[in-house]
Amino acid sequence: MRLGIRLLFAFFLINGLAAFFVLRVFMAEIKPSVRKVTEDTLVETAYLLAAQASDDLADGKLSTDASHSRFARQVQAAFQQPLRVWIWDTRKAALDLRVTVTNAQGRVLFDSAGQDVGADYARWRNIALTLRGEYGARTSREVATDEATSVMYVSAPIERDGQILGVLTVSKPANAVQSIIDSSESKMLRGGLLFLLLSAAVGFAITWWLVVQVRKLRSYAQHVQGPTLQEAQGNLLPPKMPEVPDVPGELGDLAQAMDSMRRRLEGRDYIEGYVRALTHELKSPVAAIRGAGELLQDELPAADRAMFAQQVVDQSLRLQNLIDQLMQLSQLEQRSGLASAAAHTSLRACAEQAMAQLQATAAQKGIQLVVQGDDSQGAWDAALVTLAISNLLANALDFSPAHSQIVLTLAPQRLSVQDSGPGVPDSLLHRLGERFFTTPRPNGERSGTGLGLSIVQRIMLLHGGRLQFANTQPGLRANLDFSAQD
């Protein structure tokens, strides 16, 4: 699972659980809180009305005929008066209260609903508790299986001179406040949903931002791996080092640490590979020079002394050639491209110049250098192209038999060098151009440095071209293709 998905999932999980528990607590508290407020209001209303009814009950006006009671007439008039009241977003058109007055025996003397006058309420819990001087309240359902039919009853004692004369009860149906509860729950649900959506948007934005920053670091890490490791494949130029990603906070510190680590490790593989290969190549000539030097310290015949002295010279020249080619290759590998103002260079002119440099060596071996084909020009570095052709010719001279031909064939944007030597086993063709890789010369002659074709490979990469080899039986053909850059 990707980092972004994990972060987003974790954010949604934590946020969802938090929202669930918070909403659950609020939703669970809405109904009890509304009922507490309702009961508190009913208590105050009951005690106020009980105080108003005490005179009429003490004078017997409620006991004989409620119509003679000023308190009863005022309550009835209040219930008959229409209401035009908006409580926040809820409209109230009538009183939802019901007021009853019972005597000390629990018999109903007054009922604002006009239903239960004369009924015995003494068995009701709220009446019985109030008559005993305790707080009387109850909630009952008119339909036992329907909570919506619940009615809340609150009673207050009607007293005179410390004596309880009766009980005034105020009741209110639950459905009268259910609309308030439903409205509050609906608002909370909408607010919770909006909160979740906003939190999701914020979480997605934060996660996306973090993933983008991490991807910058990942891309940077992928691009700064050692160029020489890719270069050893023989088909890539060293990539341009990307800029350190501009990311804030700890991620920025991590980017700077990665860049510092890159600078410290840069070139380590390159150097290690070079040292191993160079050490292997230096062992033979150094050993030969040391052996010849030790023998020259003894008394030797003149012929043997001359032979060993010549061996010292030959091996010294081999070391010098190796060092020169290493320096050439190192300089080429430090270049990321050609000069911006490269002139139009003639491929034939470069070929003829390279042939002139090796004409003496070819004449000593009786090998004829021939150039044919049509010339072409391009924005190439003349010195580098000449060096590449020279190295191909030198390699061909090492493998060509005496009194043979080496043919340079020109074509548009192309040049090939064909010799008449033994060629290279097909299984080793793909290794030509690797540093220090050589194949045995004909007649058991010593191998070269293994750097000449690496230099050619590097020059072609700088020109955006390709170096290719093919066995022709007999001989080997090396092709320089400059058209690959187009």
Automatic annotation (TrEMBL):
Reaction(s) this enzyme catalyzes, per UniProt: ATP + protein L-histidine = ADP + protein N-phospho-L-histidine
UniProt membrane topology term: Multi-pass membrane protein
One Pfam family named in its UniProt record: HAMP
Enzyme Commission designation: 2.7.13.3
UniProt GO cellular component terms: plasma membrane
Record's keyword terms, sorted: Cell membrane, Kinase, Membrane, Phosphoprotein, Transferase, Transmembrane, Transmembrane helix, Two-component regulatory system
Sequence intervals crossing the membrane: 6-26, 193-211
InterPro entries: HAMP_dom, HATPase_C_sf, HATPase_dom, His_kinase_dom, HisK_dim/P_dom, HisK_dim/P_sf, Sensor-like_sf, Sig_transdc_His_kin-like_C
Signal peptide limits: none
GO molecular function: phosphorelay sensor kinase activity
Sequence ranges assigned to domain HAMP in this UniProt record: 208-270
Enzyme class: transferase
Residues covered by the Histidine kinase domain: 277-486
Subcellular location: Cell membrane
Keyword Transmembrane helix: yes
Stated name of the protein: histidine kinase
Organism: Comamonas piscis
Gene designation per UniProt: creC
